[in-house]
Amino acid sequence: MGSVKKAVLVLVKPKEKGEDNRVVDPHPHVNGEAEGKARRRRWMPRVGFSPGGSPPEPPITQPKVGKIPKPLTRSRPTMGTLVVGAEYYDLVATVGKGTFGEVTQGWRRSTGEMVAIKILKNEGHHGRVVKNELRLLQALREVNTEESHVVRFLESFGDGACTYLVFELLEQNLFEFQKRNNFLPLPVRHIRTITAQVLAALVKLKELSIIHADLKPENIMLVDHARYPFRVKLIDFGSASIVTEVCHVKEPYIQSRFYRAPEILLGLPFCEKVDIWSLGCVVAELHLGWPLYPGINEYDQVRYICSTLGLPRGELLCPMERRKYAFSSLDQLAVVNIRPVSYPGQEALAEHCDLCGMVELVKRMLTWDSHERIMPSALPSQCWHSIWQRPSALHHHGVENPPPQ
Question: Where is the composition biased (Basic and acidic residues) (predicted)?
Fold first, then answer.
C-alpha cells in the first residue's frame, strides 16, 4: 500500500467576519440513531392506504445552496491549511461529525477544486478501521468511478494523530434530499434511475469481493442535482470489508439497523447480498417517504420483517405481534398512497406497470434466505431497465439456486 504522505496542519484564525460560508453537503459518516428517531416521528402520522393509484408527484426542491461553490479567495476565511509536500488544502468548514472523525470541505490550491476531506483518528480501534478503509479505497482507485457510481478517491496523507482521506466533493445525500422535500415519496421513474446506479456500484464491489455493509440513504450522494438530476454515487467505505475475511465472523455488528439484513440479525453466515437487502429497504423508503422497517432495536426490527415476510424457514422465531403501521405484505407497497392523484389514461397505466415492476424487484431483494435474493452481477447493467418493466424476467435471471435441503 506504500507509505502514507506526511501532512502539517497550520491553524489559521479568520481575520474577517460576516463572510458567507455556506457550503454544500459532502458526505459525512454520521451515526444515524438520532436521525432514525426523527424519521419515525415524521412518518407515523402520515401512514395510510388507498385502493390503487400511486404516490403523488412531489415538488422536487433544488439544494438550497445551489451549485458547488466557486474556488476560495483570500478574502474567504478558513479554519486552517493542510500542507502536504507542495500541495495545500485550505479547510473551509466542518460539515459532518461521526464516531471516527469528521468531514471538512476544503479547497485544493493546485487544481482550484473543492474537495471533501475525511479526517479520521488513528488511535486504538479507530486506527484499525482507518487502515481497513484506506486499503479498500486503494483497491477502488483503479475503478472507473463514473461508470461504477462510487465516489472518486483522490489521495490520503497523515500527521500522526489523524489520517486524511480526500474525495471529490458531492452535493447532498438522499436523506438530506428527502428531508428538504418534506419526505414526500419520489416518483417511481426517479427511484428506478437511482436504483440502477446503485446496482452498478454493487456489481463492481462484488467483482472486487467487497461488502459495503452500510448502504442507506445517507451513503448515496447526489452528484450535482441541478446539472445531472438524480445522478448518484455510493460513498463511505468505513464499514466495508472483503467477503472472504468476514463471511465466517459470528454476530458482526454491521449495517445501520433499518437496513440490516436478516442473516446479520440472526447471526447466520453472510456475504455481499447483505447490500442487496439494504438496497431493497432504500428503494421502498424512497417510494414511501419513511423507512420500511423502522425498528427501535434488533428484536423490534425482526418483528417488522416478520410482518411482511412471515417467519423464516424452520420457524426460528416465535410468532410476534404486528405493529399498527407495519405492512402485512410487500405487495402493499403497490397500493400505499399519501394522497390520491389522477393521471391521464396512458400515463396512469405506465405508472402502474412501473410500480408493479418496482414491487417485484423489491420482493426479490428482501428475502429471509440470502440464496434466494437477487444478484446484480448476474446481469449486465443495461438489462436492469427491462427487468424492472418485465417482472417475470426476475424469475429467470440473477437469482442463485438455493442450497440443497
Answer: 15-37
Binding site feature residues for ATP: 118
**8 A C-beta contact, residue 129 and residue 253:** no
Tell me whether residue 214 is one of the annotated catalytic residues: yes
> What is 191-209 written as a DSSP string?
HHHHHHHHHHHHHHHHHTT
Helix (H) or strand (E) holding 8: strand 8-11
Q: Which amino acid is at 335?
A: V
- In which domain, by residue range, is 157 found? 5-13+22-32+66-168
pLDDT in tens, 348-388: 556 667 888 889 899 999 999 999 999 876 554 444 455 55
pLDDT in tens, 216-258: 999 999 999 999 999 999 999 999 999 999 877 877 788 999 9
pLDDT on residue 376? 76
Residues 122 and 160: beta-carbon distance below 8 Å: yes
Q: Supply the CATH number for residue 90's domain.
A: 3.30.200.20
Let me know the angle formed at the C-alpha of 113 by 108 and 119, rounded to the nearest 5 degrees: 50
- pTM (global) more than 0.70: yes
> What is the Cα–Cα distance from 200 to 203, expressed in whole angstroms?
5
CATH of the domain at 363: 1.10.510.10
DSSP 95: E
Question: Could you tell me if 399 and 372 are in contact, meaning their C-beta atoms sit under 8 angstroms apart?
Answer: yes
